[in-house]
């Protein structure tokens, strides 16, 4: 049947002509009226021609069209449609149209899924590749390409061990395949001179029958996590060290007193004074640690109130005047009237205290300290400057780190905890303000804090 439809129409016309001619030759012995025979045969030929044309129109042509349409569908063009009709071919067309429309729906769904998958894969924070059970890379995301270089086509449909250069990646896939279990490892990778830490996971994939179908390799940048971890370790080490110093000292003096040192009243007084000072230092340190911990707590909320700068300064300036005088320093105060802004009063007070405290501590006798507060566009500008020892340019970026002191012994002697500026930085940040510093060794330091109005 299919052969029949594949013959061109012209072949049928010629074949029919010869059939009619053959019939004529067979009928010649039975008639002498050749004219009538010719007329009958011609009419018969015309009738047959009409029949061919009719069948061609209603059967062959539509079937040919249906075949063309099926070929288009095979190529993936699911948008093609055929005209419906009353005949059997019409029914066939309806079925073909239904098939095309179904395939179209499936293709749309598949494309949508693929698009969703691509979006997901390319927007994850991790680098990712998918490897089939034969070891060929089937999917790769942009992050992976950015990390190791090259283009997607350098990796896709290639054997993973041929194209992956990183040993850790190859080993992770191999282990996932061999053990058929998820594995996790870490490695370091350099981008230029930057050392980055990564965690690599090899996850085997199974189908419904529990057969291994491939593996996914996920690489996560854990550099920040590592940094945080090392910061935490440093912090614990620093706190322990800071606490050990006064405790060792207190224990030593108490021991000496217990071992007979109390016989001399003057020594006893001196030792008790040292023990008192050390315990006071410990108290200050613990208070600063608690303040920092409160500021860093996720649940920390600022208590915002409309405050006048004078409300803060009038509480603290008398005490600082006294401290400054005791150190033969002059404290100059210049505070603009009616500077009103929204802030957490106790926290902002802490900024003033820590800044003036530093200015007093790091300024030798006969020096000057200036406290200036003024309104500036949309900020309150707090400026504490001194004529003190100043800070080396190279050290300036580090002074906001916890426990960092330019001169450890000096800071300790003045009762510093090494946390004052770290606390200020936090308070300024939570107020969405800014802090700037100008300093010159042996000339002095000027600290500027800007808090939004
Ligand atoms: N006004 C200043 N003049 C000179 N150095 C300062 C001044 N303020 C801060 N520093 C330096 O910054 C370090 C950190 O300050 P801070 O966090 O307040 O800790 P500390 O408890 O040591 O005062 C100080 O140890 C000191 O070296
Ligand atoms: Mg300080």
Automatic annotation (TrEMBL):
It is a multi-pass membrane protein. Residues 113-167 form the PAS domain. GO terms for cellular component: membrane raft; plasma membrane. Residues 238-453 form the Histidine kinase domain. The chain crosses the membrane at residues 9-28, 34-55. Residues 57-108 form the HAMP domain. Keywords: ATP-binding, Cell membrane, Kinase, Membrane, Nucleotide-binding, Phosphoprotein, Transferase, Transmembrane, Transmembrane helix, Two-component regulatory system. It is found in: Cell membrane; Membrane raft. It is an enzyme of class 2 (transferase). It catalyses: ATP + protein L-histidine = ADP + protein N-phospho-L-histidine. The keyword Transmembrane applies. GO terms for molecular function: ATP binding; phosphoprotein phosphatase activity; phosphorelay sensor kinase activity. Its EC number is 2.7.13.3. CDD domains: HisKA, PAS. InterPro entries: BphY/WalK/GraS-like, HAMP_dom, HATPase_C_sf, HATPase_dom, His_kinase_dom, HisK_dim/P_dom, HisK_dim/P_sf, PAS. One of its GO terms (biological process) is cellular response to phosphate starvation. NCBIfam families: PnpS (NF046044), sensory_box (TIGR00229). This is histidine kinase.
């Amino acid at each position: 049947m299919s052969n029949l439809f594949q013959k061109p129409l012209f072949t049928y016309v010629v074949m029919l002509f010869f059939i009619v001619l053959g019939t004529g030759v067979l009928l010649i012995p039975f008639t002498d009226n050749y004219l009538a025979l010719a007329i009958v045969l011609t009419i018969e030929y015309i009738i047959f021609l009409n029949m061919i044309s009719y069948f061609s129109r209603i059967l062959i042509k539509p079937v040919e069209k249906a075949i063309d349409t099926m070929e288009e569908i095979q190529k993936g063009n699911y948008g093609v449609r055929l005209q419906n009709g009353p005949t059997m071919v019409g029914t066939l067309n309806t079925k073909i149209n239904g098939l095309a429309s179904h395939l179209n729906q499936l293709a749309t769904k598949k494309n949508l899924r693929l698009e969703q998958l691509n979006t997901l894969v390319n927007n994850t924070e991790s680098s990712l590749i998918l490897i089939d059970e034969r070891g060929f890379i089937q999917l790769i995301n942009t992050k992976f390409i950015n990390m190791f270089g090259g283009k997607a086509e350098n990796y896709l449909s290639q054997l993973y061990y041929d194209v992956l250069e990183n040993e850790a990646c190859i080993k992770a896939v191999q282990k996932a395949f061999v053990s058929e279990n998820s594995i996790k490892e870490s490695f370091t990778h350099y981008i230029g001179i930057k050392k980055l830490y990564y965690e690599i996971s090899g996850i085997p994939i199974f189908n419904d029958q529990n057969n291994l179908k491939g593996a996914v390799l996920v690489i996560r940048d854990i550099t920040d996590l590592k940094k945080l971890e090392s910061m935490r370790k440093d912090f614990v080490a620093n706190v322990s060290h800071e606490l050990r110093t006064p405790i060792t000292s207190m224990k030593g003096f108490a021991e000496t007193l217990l071992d007979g040192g109390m016989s001399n009243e003057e020594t006893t007084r001196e030792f008790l004074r040292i023990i008192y000072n050390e315990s006071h230092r410990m108290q200050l340190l613990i208070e600063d640690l608690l303040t920092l911990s409160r500021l860093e707590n996720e649940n920390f909320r600022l208590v915002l109130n409309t405050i006048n700068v004078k409300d803060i300064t009038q509480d603290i300036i008398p005490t600082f005047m006294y401290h400054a005088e005791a150190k033969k320093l002059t404290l100059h105060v210049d505070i603009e009237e009616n500077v009103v802004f929204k802030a957490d009063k106790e926290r902002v007070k802490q900024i003033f205290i820590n800044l003036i405290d530093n200015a007093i501590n790091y300024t030798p006798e006969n020096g000057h300290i200036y406290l200036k507060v003024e309104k500036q566009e949309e900020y309150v500008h707090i400026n504490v400057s001194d004529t003190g020892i100043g800070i080396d340019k190279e050290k300036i970026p580090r002074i906001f780190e916890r426990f960092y002191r330019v001169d450890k012994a000096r800071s300790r002697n003045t009762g510093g905890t090494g946390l004052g500026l770290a606390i200020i930085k936090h308070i300024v940040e939570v107020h969405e303000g800014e802090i700037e510093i100008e300093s010159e060794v042996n000339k002095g330091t000027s600290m500027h804090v800007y808090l939004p109005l």
